Here is the input.
Amino acid sequence: MPNIAHANGAALYAACHIRRLIAGVVLTNLLVIAAVAFTLYRSLNSLQNHADAAAAQNLAAILLILFFPGASYLLTRIWLRQMNAMKKLAQEEERFHTVADYTYDWEYWEGNSHEMLYMSPSCERVTGYAPDEFITTPDLLTRITHPDDKLPMKNHRHDASNKEPGRADFRIIRRDGEIRWIAHCCQPVFGSDGSYRGQRVSNRDVTDHHLFETEINRLAQAVEQNPTGMLITDLQGRLIYTNQAYTQITGHAFVEAYGKTQRELISTDIGDDEFNEIRKRLEAGKQWNGTVQNRHKDGALYWEFISASPIYDDEGNISSFLFLRTDITARKRNEEELRRYKDHLEDEVQQRTADLVLARNAAEAANQAKSVFLANMSHELRTPLNAILGFSGIMRKDPRTPEYQRQNLDIINRSGGHLLTLINDVLEMAKIEAGRVQLENAPFDLGGMVREVTDMMNLRACEKGLRLLIDQSSCFPRYISGDEARLRQVLINLVGNAIKFTHEGGVTIRLGTKSNRISHLIIEVEDSGPGIAAEDQQRIFEPFVQLAERGDNKGTGLGLTITRQFVQLMGGNLSLVSTPGIGTLFHVELPLTEVTKADIAKPKAEKGDVVGLAPGQTEYRILIVEDQVENQLLLVKLLESVGFKVKAADNGEQGVALFQSWRPHFIWMDRQMPVMDGLKAMQIIRALPGGREVKIAAVTASAFKEQRAELLNAGMDDFVRKPYRFNEIYECLSKQLGVKYIYKDIPGTETINVPKLTRESLSILPKALRQELKNALESLESERIALVIEQVASYDTKLQKALARIVENFDYPAIIKVLDTN
Here is the structure.
């Protein structure tokens, strides 16, 4: 029984073991089947979706597993090979990035659709943009290309049809705005199957090279275009270089001179000793200068001054020789001529000596030439300007002139006045430099002058929203003696500049005195403008200098120059203190001479416009001697319009003839005329019968006031400068002949009846007209203001005249203040 039980137990154990084996085999087969099914599914899916080689390999693996018992071993081997291949691929990729990412040049790979497939990190150093920015923004490269280079680079694109490398230079604009030059090289890229994969591009920053080339080209141009002949030889005397001036001097081009010896290149007529001396000095590293005679290609002899020197290489060794040549034939000819005259002809020597004396005198009189230039320029500029201002004034006075034309004439007059101011500035500066300025010293009302200037300047300040403040000390004098016109100009220039260049805050004028050895008048003008940099504080006083950063550059740039010159001429000093961003203070000190009110001459009462001659007078004959047709016609119209008998002559000779035949009472004589000038004609007339009795007044466009005394001393009775005011002409005739006139408006009778401007006086005007008047005044447009005030005359002529008087004094705020109360 035990044996049976043992046998049964063994059989049972064996059966169980067999069952386990069968179950394991079944389970293994199931797992294999599952794996095969999954692999088959992936292979079919890959074949369906991609139909590539990898799907075919998976299918082959399935078949191997199903039909070949050793397939698992084979697959393991294949898997190991793939792992090795992947490792090598990773190593190759690492090598690629090591080479591509660390290249100094900016490299990238552009796909066949112009997309960026790779961008080297060097792009950030060159462009300022990171690689990712180029990858994610395909048009970034086009955007940073310089606008002038966009089209050439667009046309430069390579594709599969352009297999040779393409090269181009273009500019980019870096992220920081800097412009850099790029040397661009691109070539197509093809896959192992020969398909086009885009292009590989290498960009190199060559900005320094471009700058160097520019400098080299500039240097080459300077050498090639230099008027001094240049010749370079090597140490053996062989020709290396000549410029254009060498060819012009010698007649030999580089090719023609190439085969010549160094001796021939220096001079065809040089002696052995002199040539050996030149070689010896050059080889010793010394410079040689000398004058030699040479023969031109056409056979003519000429003289040259040659300066020869060695050229050194980077190691300090002499590498070549430089010869600078100047043709001095003309100078030699002159020297030889002087020597020949000196040696052989005493008379010629004396003549030459006289010529040299004349030349010396001409050099010493160069400053006088400036005065002559000024006189001519003043005549040429003021003469036509006199006609412009004169005829526009005549048309303005004509009652038949329509109102819109009067406005145009006002514009012409203002523009002409502005042009005259500019001309006067330039001529004034030139007169100062020529030493022709003469100061006038007379008592005047300083307080009144300061008030007039500040009232005028306050309007400009109000236009810009600035405050104009006056800080006057109690000891500031009211009446002084000096040059009122030039002191007024100094104050106008300083305050005008302060307002001009100040945009916020205000301008302060400080007035006072200082006593040390002598009394001084102190004037300070301080603004809250942009200030002046320390390096510009002296330069700003130079003629025609304008600081662009100060904003407004309208003008001649002479204001401060003339101001300082005037202050110095008056024995004073002008200085400035300025802090950029805070403001500027100009400080003027002038010698002070006080006077009393009794010393001030009372101003003459202004008369109205002359409309005719008073009755009961002689029929005056007036002769005009003037070569400029326009100015001649202007004087004729002025005089005939009020009743004078007038004749005109074109030059001094005709003027003398007309004087003899017509016997005028008065002659207007221009100074500069063809055929015979005014002074000569005046002298001849004075010598003729009746010439001493006739009154002659000079009409001149001279820039020099001091010529008045010169003309009066020469025999003229009076002097009027162009451009003149009409009343100057009439007053001169009245002064010399006692002529009496009828005036259009006589001050005194009119001012008595001018009403005071009050709220009640303006209330008679319609509300719309009052508002229009206020708007016109606030606009500061003189033409617009004049039109509105003319409309007032239809309601009250006296009120219209009162408003006109206030507007003439530019007291706009007074009218606006009264209007605001209505």
Remarks:
- Residues 1-18, 46-51, 746-754 have pLDDT under 50 and may be disordered.
- The chain has 30 helices and 24 strands.
- The first strand starts at residue 106 and ends at 110.
- Residues 2-49 form the longest helix (48 residues).
